[in-house]
Amino acid sequence: MNMPGSLERLIRFMLDECCPPFLRDSRLFMWLPFRIAFGDKAGCFMDFKERAAEDHDGLLASVYEETGDVRIQDRGSDLSDALASLVASEIAGRTVLDAGCGGGHLAGMLSGDHEVTACDISIDDEAVRRYPGVLFRTGDVQALPFADGEFDTVTCAHTLEHIWDVRRAVAELRRVSAERLIVVVPRERPYRFSFNLHLHFFRFEYQLQQLFAGRDPGAPFRIELMDGCWYYREDRDTEMVAGP
Fold first, then answer.
1. CB half-sphere exposure, 54, CA atoms < 13 A
2. E strands present in 67-114
3. Where are the domains of the chain?
4. Superfamily name and number for 81-235
5. From CA 153, how far away is CA 155, in angstroms rounded?
6. Strands 177-186 and 95-99
């Protein structure tokens, strides 16, 4: 389902911030909005978290394939223009890995000035055709098929919220980045029923601090809230001059 990002954020705000939790977590109350949004795929979204708890190995790939025609999307990317521009402005070095690339929008944007590799658990053939300057690889963010420090900068936008073992994923992102790591996650409240396939929810800045607490001592980092998302940047090389 194609939906302008501003409208999607407004709907999410009304449900997540204004709706009482006892209703927001009620299957009976949420069934109708899910049915309107996703049609006969509503059950896939409503049962997602329970299914993930029972059998998370391989679940994301199968669910994404099953719901690809009804997921709420905005121009092939969850990143706002302002966030995408910020990511592009803070790329360090020549080589870039976009981990959890989705439709390849960010990778394609960065490929004009950098040597970009993009990976995800499944790769859309249309993305390969649309962004010929990007090297696409199939790979799980929890076990990236790349060497230690293989990329100057690693980006990971709107991916960690989908990952079962999020700390393992962070360790892998750090392992393959030589100079800089850039992560974007949505700022959301945790609910049982959500209109996205998210397993983790980052409401407060301290949650980002906890998630990335294992960074190298003295490594410069930055956390910023922008367009309903948390932007995190960490310099892997402690001798680098930190950005603004």
1. 5
2. 95-99
3. 5-67, 81-235
4. Vaccinia Virus protein VP39 (3.40.50.150)
5. 7
6. unpaired
Strand residue runs (E) in 66-173: 95-99, 115-120, 134-138, 151-157
Burial label for 234, CB within 10 Å (0-12, 13-18, 19+), is buried
Tell me the C-alpha distance between 37 and 125, whole Å: 26
Query: Up-side HSE of residue 167: CA atoms within 13 Å toward CB?
Result: 7
**What span, in angstroms and rounded, lies between the C-alpha atoms of 99 and 174?**
11
| String of DSSP letters for 119-167 | EESS--HHHHHH-TTEEEEE-BTTB-SS-TT-EEEEEEES-GGG-SSHH
Instruction: Quote the pTM value.
Output: 0.85
Q: Give the separation between CA 138 and CA 60, rounded to whole angstroms.
A: 14
Q: What is the CA radius of gyration of the chain?
A: 18
Per-residue pLDDT of the chain (244 residues; tens, 9 = 90+): 444 556 666 777 788 888 899 999 999 999 998 888 888 888 888 888 888 777 666 666 677 667 666 555 543 457 888 999 999 999 999 999 999 998 999 999 999 999 999 999 888 899 999 999 999 999 999 999 999 999 999 999 999 998 889 999 999 999 999 999 999 999 988 988 888 888 899 999 999 999 999 888 888 999 999 988 999 999 986 554 434 3
Question: Are the C-beta atoms of 173 and 234 separated by less than 8 Å?
Answer: no
Cβ contact 173:151 at 8 Å: no
